[in-house]
């Protein structure tokens, strides 16, 4: 069994055991403060119902549910009266509310559903926060040493930071297990995300806990509104980004429709470029720019009078490659995409010592796809993902070109990605 499968299974099993233990203990001992449990459980369930369909690897598709769960884990008082629900009841309520908000979505078939990994992360991170806070609160240690002033608020903030770090470590671990990408770059992505929606979730969770402590449960709906509005605004922003991605994908297909490049070439290059970019430490916005440039890297061929045979620009003389790249950059600049995308398209044919890393990646991955396609046509393989023969031949030619055309680190990064299975959905094309 692969280590990634074992890692995912271990995380899910840990969350399942914790959730079952919490539900069993709560059923055995009874529900403390049912009003608080019902209010926070309803908030978590509402947040799950209002969530958007999560893409693979999406960090927090249900921020309202996450903030409500954290607030319940760090709740020490309600309208001035100490609470006593404890860590296990916190986990039980969050687990039950998460399932209550998930089942109706699955029944209606809305989106892709949260999935086991999302629920496992929620249970484990909330369990971590509750186990750090509730025993200290119940024993009176928090009240004796911190009181109710700024030190108490700082203590909550520290616990939220530790909880967010725990969630980031878990998220990166699960992504590493599913994709095989380097753990360091995945963790950096997750930590950077804490400055965005992660910080909003943590801040709202802390304010909810403090607001309910001072004003009671009436504070919950008031404090939930800003994050709910943020969630709605983010969904609209995501819709705009989706339209932009679809526009770029349509432009990328223009070269295929015109017969300039083989079917699927642009998307293969984009997928492999993104995987190699992650392998070499790119993340976040850099990967987005790289993927867009890879999709549009051949668009300059639309300006040619005589199309390139098979669309294989990697086999052309250097000056012709550079001319096509400059034509492509000119076209890309007229589409309204970020200028950084056009720069990569323009510089993909330069000597690699003069190129930025994304342009090096696009150049090498494009050459790999061109070479494997030529090998397939010649009967020495079956194209990308079709067997080790064409891939090994192509990589050998790329290694021979590291004196001028291809950066050695990019070629070796591509080899590692291919040995692991390439981009998402590919099967390994090289010996492991």
Describe the structure.
With 432 residues, the chain is mainly α. It has helices at 3-29, 34-49, 63-73, 86-108, 115-139, 141-146, 150-179, 183-215, 219-257, 265-279, 285-295, 318-333, 339-347, 357-377, 388-400, 408-420; strands at residues 77-78, 81-82. The protein has a two-stranded antiparallel sheet. α2 (34-49) runs antiparallel to α3 and α14 packs across α15. The model is unreliable at 54-58, 378-386 and 425-432 (pLDDT under 50).
Feature tags:
432 residues, mainly alpha, two-stranded antiparallel sheet, 2 strands, 71% helix, elongated
Major beta sheet, strand line-up = 1-2
- Average pLDDT works out at 81
* Alpha-beta content class: mainly alpha
Span from first to last CA?
15 Å
The biggest sheet, with number of strands, parallel, antiparallel or mixed sense and barrel status, is: 2 strands, antiparallel
Count of separate DSSP helical elements:
16
Order of helices and strands: HHHEEHHHHHHHHHHHHH
């Amino acid at each position: 069994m692969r280590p990634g499968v074992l890692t995912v299974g271990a995380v899910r099993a840990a969350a399942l055991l914790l959730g079952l233990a919490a539900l069993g203990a709560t059923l055995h001992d009874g529900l403390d403060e049912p009003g608080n449990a019902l209010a926070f459980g309803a908030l978590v369930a509402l947040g799950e119902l209002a969530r958007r369909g999560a893409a693979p690897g999406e960090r927090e598709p249900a921020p309202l549910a996450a903030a409500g769960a954290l607030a319940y884990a760090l709740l020490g008082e309600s309208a001035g009266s100490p609470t006593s629900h404890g860590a296990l009841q916190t986990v039980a309520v969050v687990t039950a509310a998460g399932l209550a908000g998930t089942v109706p979505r699955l029944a209606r078939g809305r989106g892709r559903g949260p999935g086991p990994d999302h629920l496992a992360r929620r249970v484990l991170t909330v369990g971590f926060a509750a186990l750090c806070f509730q025993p200290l609160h119940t024993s009176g240690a928090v009240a004796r040493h911190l009181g109710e002033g700024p030190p108490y608020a700082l203590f909550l903030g520290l616990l939220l930071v530790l909880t967010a770090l725990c969630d980031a470590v878990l998220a990166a671990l699960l992504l590493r297990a599913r994709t095989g990408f380097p753990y360091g770059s995945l963790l950096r992505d997750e930590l950077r995300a804490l400055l965005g929606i992660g910080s909003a979730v943590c801040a709202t969770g802390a304010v909810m806990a403090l607001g309910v402590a001072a004003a009671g449960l009436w504070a919950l709906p008031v404090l939930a509104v800003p994050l709910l509005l943020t969630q709605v605004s983010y969904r609209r922003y995501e819709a705009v980004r989706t339209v932009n991605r679809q526009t770029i994908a349509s432009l990328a297909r223009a070269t295929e429709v015109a017969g300039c490049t083989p079917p699927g070439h642009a998307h293969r290059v984009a997928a492999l470029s993104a995987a190699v970019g992650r392998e070499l430490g790119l993340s976040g916005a850099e990967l987005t720019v790289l993927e867009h440039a890879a999709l549009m890297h051949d668009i300059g061929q639309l300006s040619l009078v005589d199309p390139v045979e098979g669309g294989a620009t990697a086999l052309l003389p250097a000056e012709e490659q550079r001319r096509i790249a400059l034509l492509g950059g000119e076209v890309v600049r007229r589409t309204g995409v970020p200028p950084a995308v056009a720069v990569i398209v323009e510089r993909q044919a330069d000597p690699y010592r003069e190129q930025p890393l994304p342009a090096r990646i696009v150049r090498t991955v494009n050459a790999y796809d061109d070479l494997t396609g030529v090998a397939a046509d010649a009967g020495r393989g079956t194209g990308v993902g079709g067997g080790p023969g064409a891939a090994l031949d192509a990589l050998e030619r790329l290694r021979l070109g590291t004196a001028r055309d291809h950066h050695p680190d990019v070629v070796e990064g591509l080899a590692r990605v291919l040995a692991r299975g390439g981009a998402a959905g590919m099967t390994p094309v090289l010996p492991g």
